[in-house]
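pinging the channel bc i need a second pair of eyes. not urgent but kinda urgent?? the chain im working w is below, pasted from the shared doc
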Amino acid sequence: MTGKERIRRIVHVDMDAFYASVEQRDNPDLRGRPVAVGGIRRGVVAAASYEARRFGVRSAMPSARALRQCPALVFVKPRFEVYRAISQQIRAIFAEYTPLIEPLSLDEAYLDLTDYLAGRTATRIAQEIRARIRQATGLTASAGVSYNKFLAKLASDQRKPDGLFVIPPEAGPEFVASLPIGRFHGVGPATAARMQAHGIQTGADLARQSLDFLTAHFGKSGSYYWNIARGIDTREVTPDRIRKSIGAENTYFQDIRDLGQALAELVPLADKVWHHASHAGRSGRTVTLKVKYGDFRQITRARSLSRPVESRDEMLAIASDLLAPVFADPHGVRLLGITMSGLDAAAGEDAPPRQLGLFDDP
């Protein structure tokens, strides 16, 4: 940063084990016990309580593996209508402090308080927001305060659960330098492995790389990595993010081994995607099929048109065409998904991004 740049005040608020905490709040018998929200027979863990996390149970983990790691694990069906209602309560609290709110999901959001401090510090406001969330919902939230989105999100993880952490501008680069590369938001496991293959283990290692090197090895993301290694992130908090895709998927109780059955299972997925696209007044140019086999291998296949998809039947036909060549596998199919992307933003109002139908138990 230069001395001429205005220092922003960004807060990242992240609810603590949100779905699981709601279930423990509403059912006293679950308090203090390892809890997983999701499908027990063929599903995945949507959220794990902190008691479950001590056994290594994590979100997106197959339920069978979670049970092996924690035999005492209690599974609870997700209640998304309840989670959404609580999320709206929380966002109403945010809106009393700033109009610049960028939700990332039901349980986390960025807030830009730069022009809305009213004589207070961002840290003081973050403390107040956390207290009000607890009072209104009985749940705890962690918050990170910093001068950009990247660091605010890192900060919110530092003292979980029920914590607050601040990274001031003068401490940003040093804080980043000390972190393992796997902790960086925007650096997934595959990218982290590629970086480690080049000897990049920490933020300090990343900062030693030239922009040319990072661009050559990581493409368009190279400039992003070069900046965050120095504590630089110029992304704005954008309340009206453009939704890039609409998707639905389902995990099945038994692996599907018959193509006709698999094609039939695409119908409700297409119905759900088209319903939500129509409700938003939008269509897309790319249809992507997701297939997960019984041995957990996963593939995607996509087809793009020169125009928006015109109907639910056309989307279903594309997905069906994509499925037929990849269906045959000795392990069967445990999950199918359809996503429509390249949405036409001019067709209607946008809606917050949301993946539909993630779990096998409705």
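so Confidence is low (pLDDT under 50) at residues 345-362. and The first strand starts at residue 10 and ends at 15. — does that match what u expected or am i reading it wrong
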